[in-house]
Design goal:
alpha/beta; 8 strands
């Protein structure tokens, strides 16, 4: 982990920011007329080079794990659904499978902590650290070594992937509860303000969920400087898949690739990853904004503006899959679009310069 963080910190961007911006401004269009696609092209050019390579290769990781806190009634679905969804991923029938096929991306599902036995499922990468976390409402969710092991899983699988676009998603019943607790502790925002309905709990379920997150966050708040101690926050109230996602983001950046952050849980992992690896933010692209209230809190904390806002809250990396064509398009602008000079087109102010005062 330290080696990967060091590589991110020492990395020299492939594209010079000033030069890439000059290229974007020289393209045959009024300045800023492509809106935020120009900002994304600038980021792509800085991270991947200008012009960037063809971005045909893309992968979406789905890290799967269970949560002991589900026993507190914080989810509308039973814990067994995590394993059942792994079977759905394996069969190619989940939303992420469909959306990834539509955009030409690979899906890799990694069992980092599913409570059920999914070893017989084809296409599932079996890297289980333990069979779900402990109940974060009554004690630490993980041991220190389990957090490190989960981080290492993400670091290894994403760090060895060849794709230049890497989406980071998850599956885990109860994980919006853990993500809300992590968000509250790492941002200092009141716990009740980051808790949403997740899989669709009713009002009583929402009240239970808020109480659980408030109690967990209050326990962590007694630590010395919890906002700066992401490892301890993850250990006490995080999730195995959240830790693995944080590792995957660091591992992706360490080899100079772009990281697509998915929804709320993925963003909470990105927040923890950025505390562990301060050089990470330039590699992060927020794919979309979830309807979960905590997601906006995390995006604001990270200074990220999402590409899409489709009122989604599914997870699985579905927002990443939808954002991949947008990232590819931004790269194509730098590779293929003519400049005013190359096309022989007058740029803004050229006529004034030719005629003089």
């Amino acid at each position: 982990m330290e080696d990967a963080i060091g590589r991110v910190a020492a990395a020299v961007p492939l594209g010079d920011r000033v030069a890439v911006q000059s290229h974007v401004d020289a393209l045959t269009k009024p300045p800023g007329s492509l809106g935020r696609l120009e900002d994304l092209a600038l980021q792509v050019g800085c991270v991947l080079g200008d012009p960037p390579p063809a971005l045909d290769d893309a992968v979406v990781f789905v890290f799967a794990a269970d949560h002991g806190v589900v026993a507190r009634g914080v989810s509308a679905y039973p814990a067994v659904v995590t394993a059942q969804m792994c079977a759905n991923f394996s069969a190619g029938g989940a939303a992420i499978n469909v959306l990834a096929r539509a955009c030409g991306a690979e899906v890799r599902v990694v069992d980092v902590g599913v409570a059920g036995d999914v070893r017989r499922l084809a296409g599932i990468e079996h890297r289980k650290v333990r069979a779900g976390t402990r109940d974060l409402s009554v004690g630490p969710a993980m041991t220190a070594s389990e957090v490190v092991d989960a981080l290492a899983v993400g670091l290894e699988v994403a760090g060895s992937a060849g794709a230049r676009i890497v989406g980071v998603g998850e599956m885990g019943i109860g994980n919006t509860t853990a993500a809300a607790a992590v968000t509250a502790c790492l941002t200092g925002v009141a716990a009740r303000d980051v808790v949403g309905r997740g899989t669709g709990v009713d009002d009583r379920g929402l009240a239970r969920k808020r109480e659980v997150v408030e109690r967990a966050a209050a326990r962590v708040a007694r630590l010395d400087g919890p906002r700066d101690n992401a490892l301890e926050v993850l250990r006490r109230i995080g999730g195995l898949e959240i830790a693995a996602m944080a590792g995957a983001m660091i591992g992706t950046a360490a080899r100079g690739a772009l990281v697509l952050v998915d929804g709320f849980i993925s963003a909470a992992a990105a927040l923890a990853a950025c505390r562990l690896c301060p050089g990470l933010p330039p590699y992060l692209v927020a794919s979309h904004r979830s309807t979960e209230p905590g997601h906006t809190v995390v995006l604001d904390s990270l200074g990220l503006t999402p590409l899409l806002d489709l009122e989604m809250r599914l997870g699985e990396g579905t927002g990443c899959a939808l954002a991949i064509p947008v990232v590819r398009a931004a790269g194509a602008l730098l590779r293929e679009m003519a400049t005013f000079e190359s096309a022989g087109i007058s740029g803004p102010g050229d006529d004034l310069r030719e005629t003089g005062p």
